[in-house]
Amino acid sequence: xxxxxxxxxxxxxxxxxxxSACGSGNVKNEATxxxxxxxxxxxxxxxxxxxxxDPVTIEFMGHGNPDEKKIFEKLISSFEEKYANVTVKYxxxxxxxxSQKLKTLVGSGKAPDVFYVGGSEFYRFAEAKAILxxxxxxxxxxxxxxxxxxxxxxxxxRYDGSKLGSGDLYALPKDVGPWAFVYNKDLFEKAGVPxxxxxxxxxxxxxxxxxxxxxxxxxxxxxxPDQYGIGAYSLESAVWANxxxxxxxxxxxxxVDQPEFYEAMQFVADLTxxxxxxxxxxxxxxxxAYTRFLNGKLAMFAMGPWDxxxxxxxxxxxxxxxxxxxPNTGKTATWLGSMGFAISAKTAHPQEAFDLAAFLSLDESxxxxxxxxxxxxxxxxxxxxxEFMEMGKAPQNRxxxxxxxxxxxxxxxxxxxKDTQWIDTxxxxxxxxxxxxxxxxxxxxxxxxxxxxxxxxxxx
Length: 460
Hints:
This protein is α/β, with parallel strands linked by helices.
């Protein structure tokens, strides 16, 4: 009996070893998250290294200027160091070509594993189930702390099956992009003009116009300004500050024909048509406002955090301020952009794709490298309020970025539309106002019915 007992015990031990060996394999159910890859490089409880994972290659597609491409190449290199078994094939597409290329790839079933997705595209892809519901992966990663991530960014990528803003997450924020008011500090000081205020509501349209007149200079006396006061003024900022709306999304009613809207639009048009402090379409075609600002020939412009790397190289001092407030309301507004990292619903490597998206969006070291390279305000609130604010590079008034995120920034207009033809039509035909062919009041009354028709057709 004793020998039999020993034999039985030995067989049980062998069986347990076999089962244990089977359980340590690399096979996994890719419909649900596996053990988080973020822990894959850690040692086990016995002090030994965990088994190495099989090599995996995933594709990642984004867009941006050359500076953004260089930044993401560095971030991906850092990711590959942390996740040694994963190789990322990164493609950066010119911004003007990105949307069409992405649509083609998604439509053909050849979408990259991870890719940028914006508001209207996100809505369409989530509705079509072309992107992965990543809530189960988020629930299992230690990187995700909803109390330490900007709600304004997260809510852009929630979808409950019928509308945006609630439900599960289908993407992680690449960034939350405050569109800030930037000015050439050297030009202001040279002209003896008081600097714009960083506090919302203290500097109005009237203050901006007075400064712009003093900062518009015809240097060679040919009757054409060589230096302008303001360029590419944000129509969204003017409309929202004045109490206007492009659309009431709750009812689906286009509202561009309301006085609050067309008065703001006329104000922006008159910066060129009446006051001559902003480049007209002909001058803009010869040299756009962005290039003018870089060349030191434009005193006030607009920027996102992603512009910092190029602006850090400028030979003059610059800073950011709150967007000018409407004198009619005393309020300031601007748009708050965002792109997301989405994962293809057809990816063969959902865990590794999620690991990349989470590293780029949530990982502390990734977020630190991201803001230090000048790509974005950190998605992590404590980092944004802490070390980001202590950064020793321009802008000095970087609190403005956070004020826009928290106080007066608003989602860009198309972000809640599945079909954007209604706003595209507005933008494509607004030149009638910008070149003085029609008043903003008459043109908005004319274009509103067409916009409404297109919105109803594509979004209701």
